[in-house]
UniProtKB/TrEMBL annotation:
Keyword terms of this UniProt record: Leucine-rich repeat, Repeat
Keyword Repeat carried by entry: yes
A Pfam family reported for this protein in Swiss-Prot or TrEMBL: LRR_3
Protein name, UniProt field: TIR domain-containing protein
Organism, scientific name: Phaseolus angularis
């Protein structure tokens, strides 16, 4: 194998790795190796004489590795390290000379207690499921994505809040993280770069999160002591507050509707954006009373709708408790018996412990013909039908949205 540059032993399944046994060990690997992919590698380390100077990508998922090598290697070409599921791994090598390193994935390396990555070029560090991890550090100013989900960290190093290019931070499942406040974020360097934030810290205190002007996704699943949501930024398109059992459903629905009316929909219109992913999920059993057009059936018809300044519709859907992983929701919209619109979502919520409210927005510009057909000044017999939906729906309500000089308003309030 002295001249091998590309070597790959790959398993199509992460959960059913086949093994190549090496009863006599492995004496050497090519010093010319550029791509090394060996799923289920059965030894505790790479050969002592292995030189990784030419290596560009190292992928050894579900290996028996305890360490890669001893000492410091001149990793001038290395861009990717992927050791997913290497549950016996207890240390990673010094990566300070890996000047091109961009991506390190150590997901489910459950024996790691500390991780310190000092490559200045690193962009993505994934420590998801490193359940023993308590300490970590990363020096790169190029960092854009950091996942600490389901680790045992107790606090976030202050340096993380000053990563100017950080766009996504995942803290879901960090049971030892007592409280996450907005102060380090608001006063940090990435106030205008963070697009995704996930946490289920015991306490989530972020009254000023609305000032995170680029935040697109916020996951607060299982924040059991979260009693109310803060005012949300206009950029936010997805909120997941699954199993936040202390949230007041009525007040949360009102806040989300207010966010969509006063912030989100005007933001979409101003920036000429489409609303393919608008999604807000939180616990609740009923659509709020202000909604006139609601039903426990699979369809509802609105007899007529004024055409002028009709922006679209907000859907409030009550989902039954249970698993919604890979479950779909599909709503068809008909006008006088002709299908004019269609909305579909693929849900990725693993387990709901109670009924939940799902709020979505459907812009009038997404409809095929409703803006062209109609009788006089109004649309007649607009019917919404939830059909072929895999998720179980208890109830749903429709809010038509209209524009006015004073802003947007919901139609159908009692």
């Amino acid at each position: 194998m002295t001249n091998v540059r590309f070597f790959k032993i790959h398993s199509w399944s992460k959960f059913n790795i086949f093994n190549v046994y090496l009863p006599n060990g492995l004496n050497t690997l090519s010093h010319k190796m550029r791509y090394l992919h060996w799923d289920g590698f059965c030894l505790e380390s790479l050969p002592a004489n292995f030189s990784a100077e030419k290596l560009v990508e190292l992928c050894m998922r579900c290996s028996k590795l305890k360490k890669l090598w001893d000492g410091v290697q001149n990793l001038v070409n290395l861009k990717t390290i992927d050791l997913w599921g290497s549950r016996d791994l207890i240390e990673i090598p010094d990566l300070s000379l890996a000047e091109k390193l961009e991506n390190v994935s150590l997901c489910y390396c459950e024996s790691l207690h500390e991780v310190h990555v000092h490559s200045k070029s690193l962009r993505v560090l994934n420590l998801y499921g490193c359940s023993s991890l308590r300490k970590f550090s990363v020096t790169s100013e190029e960092l854009t994505r950091l996942s600490l989900a389901f680790t045992s960290i107790c606090s976030i190093p202050s340096s993380i809040w000053h990563k100017r290019k950080l766009k996504a931070l995942y803290l879901t499942g960090c049971r030892n993280l007592g409280e996450l406040t907005d102060e380090p974020i608001i006063h940090g360097s990435h106030k205008h770069s963070l697009t995704e934030l996930a946490s289920n810290a015991e306490r989530f205190s972020m009254k000023n999160i609305k000032s995170l002007s680029t935040l697109r996704m916020l996951w607060l699943d299982d924040c059991k002591k979260l009693v109310s949501l803060p005012k949300l930024p206009p950029s936010l398109e997805k909120l997941s507050a699954c199993n936040c059992t202390s949230l007041d459903s009525y007040m949360t629905q009102r806040l989300v509707l207010q966010h969509m009316l006063q912030s989100r929909i005007p933001y979409l219109r101003k920036n000429d954006l489409r609303c393919y992913d608008e999604e807000y999920l939180f616990p609740g059993n009923h659509v709020i009373d202000e909604c006139v057009f609601n039903t426990t059936e699979t369809s509802i018809t609105i007899p007529y709708l004024w055409k002028t300044e009709l922006y679209g519709f907000i859907y409030c859907i009550i989902l039954s408790k249970g698993s919604l992983l890979q479950s779909g929701i599909s709503c068809s919209v008909y006008q006088d018996g002709i299908r004019v619109g269609w909305l579909q979502r693929l849900l990725e919520y693993e387990s709901l412990t109670s009924n939940h409210v799902l709020c979505m927005y459907h812009d009038i510009n997404e409809f095929d013909a409703i803006t062209e057909e109609g009788h006089g000044h109004f649309f007649s017999n607009v019917t919404f039908i939830f059909e072929n939906s895999e998720a179980s729906i208890e109830e749903f309500g429709i809010f038509p949205i209209y524009g006015s000089e004073s802003g947007l308003k919901l139609v159908g309030r009692r």
